[in-house]
Amino acid sequence: MKDTRDFIIDEAYRLFLNHSYEAVSISMISEAIGFTKGALYHHFKNKEELFRAVIDKHFPVTSIIVDEENTTLEEYTRLCIEHTHKILKAIFGKGEEVILVNYLSLIADCFRHYEGFTENKSRVVDDAVKSVEIIITNAIRLGEIRKDINIRVVALQYFSLSIGLAGDLVRTNSVESAIKSMKDQLNQLYYLLKQ
């Protein structure tokens, strides 16, 4: 049962990725997987439920879980790079050619057709920024970085550099190149904070 469900999700993912949410019909999915609509509805009550399952499986965007009170900003910088690399490998490392515009379109579809997606991602962002603010505050208190910074702005910069990878992916079409750019930028930011 789980294998069949995963097969449906994986095939629907390819369709949603290459054709958009609006263009993909239940008939199209049914034809692609070789099941009747009834068999498809046995696993998913509608297209919306299937779309949510596709996004939940193929876009594993999560926050870094760290002990804010005991993680240095230098350690967090390294963990941020590793975590982002892991997410990008999960999304783009499936051995298929990356057509980034399709991924960006699919993400846009999430905001339009996945009920609760916007609120959920906003919560993830807010939690990530609050976590970084605690780490930065402790880094200042412990003398790891200088005191004359705006904690909120720097926390937002850490988050924005991670999200800004989309621009590097568009420019280079390479996960490794985008990660290197992020690493260089975060390390430079950390270096400037230490001055």
Question: If you had to describe this structure to a student in words, what would you say it looks like?
Answer:
- The structure is a single chain.
- The protein is mostly helical and 195 residues long.
- It has two domains: 2-57, Orthogonal Bundle (Arc Repressor Mutant, subunit A), CATH 1.10.10.60; 60-194, Orthogonal Bundle (Tetracycline Repressor, domain 2).
- Helices cover 74% and strands 0% of the residues.
- The chain has helices at residues 2-19, 26-33, 37-43, 47-58, 73-92, 100-113, 117-141, 151-163, 165-172, 175-194.
- The longest helix is centred in the middle third of the chain and has 25 residues, at 117-141.
- It is elongated.
- The N and C termini lie far apart (57 Å).
User: Which structural category do the helix and sheet elements fall into?
Assistant: mainly alpha
| CA-based gyration radius | 20 Å
CATH architecture of the largest domain: Orthogonal Bundle
CATH class identity of the largest domain: Mainly Alpha
User: Unreliable stretches, pLDDT < 50, 5 or more residues?
Assistant: none
Would you count the extended β strands for me?
0
How would you summarize what this structure contains?
The protein has 195 residues and is mainly alpha-helical. It has helices at 2-19, 26-33, 37-43, 47-58, 73-92, 100-113, 117-141, 151-163, 165-172, 175-194.
